[in-house]
Amino acid sequence: MKKMLLFGAAVVALSCATAPAFAAASASNGVAISGTSTPTCTLNSGVQSAATNATYTPGAGASTLAVTTLASATDATLQTTSATVTFVGMCNYAHNVGLMSANSGLQNASTSNDPLATSGSFIKKIGYTASYQWAGHSSTGSETLTFTNDVGTGSSAAATVTKGATFAVSGANRGNLVLQFDIAGLATPVVAGTYTDTLTVQIGASL
């Protein structure tokens, strides 16, 4: 009887030693995928959506707003002017929007016609208002550029750069940027000459 029991135990031990190993039910390997979208802004050349006494001509990077009649041909009084220009823009990140004027108003390119010190008043530098709408925000306060006419005698105020306060847009935005430009008419004669300024509207970095 002892021999039979030992033989049985040996058979059981042999059976355990040769049993196959079972594979896992699944296997995986995580593959990390990454890419970068760089901060980018675009702004097209714009179209004139409304105007009084002005014509807008779009250009690549620089456009022109021509005032049809700056001063009356009869008595040189300042004429009312307005223009609305709509740009299609996009910034894919939290960004800024702002305005900048190169001359702080429309500056006379010539000083040869400056009013005499003993003269009555003339408009020597022309003021205007520039405002915008972007990302659901309308410029207010110091975000809007507001320049008054330089009225008097002698030389006009010097050309200086003025930057409007920057408005911070809290996220990416794609849509229309609407620029509004206005000159208020005034019954005061304007000194003869060509009056110019460069108005910049920018989305992205601060001006």
Question: How would you portray this structure in words?
Answer:
- This protein is mainly β.
- The chain has one domain.
- The strands form five sheets. Strands 1, 2, 6, 10, 11, 12 and 16 form a seven-stranded antiparallel beta sheet that branches. Strands 7, 14, 15 and 19 form a four-stranded antiparallel beta sheet that branches. Strands 13-9-8-18 form a four-stranded antiparallel beta sheet, with no helix packed on it.
- The radius of gyration is 37 Å and the shape is elongated.
- The N terminus is likely disordered.
Using DSSP, what is the number of strands? 19
What oligomeric state best describes the polypeptide chains here?
single chain
Low-confidence stretches: 1-16
SS-based structural class? mainly beta
The largest sheet, given as strand count, sense and whether it forms a barrel, is: 7 strands, antiparallel
Distance between the termini: 103 Å
**Helical amount among residues, as a percent range?**
under 10%
Give the helix tally: 1
Helix/strand order? HEEEEEEEEEEEEEEEEEEE
Please give the domain count.
1
Radius of gyration over alpha carbons? 37 Å
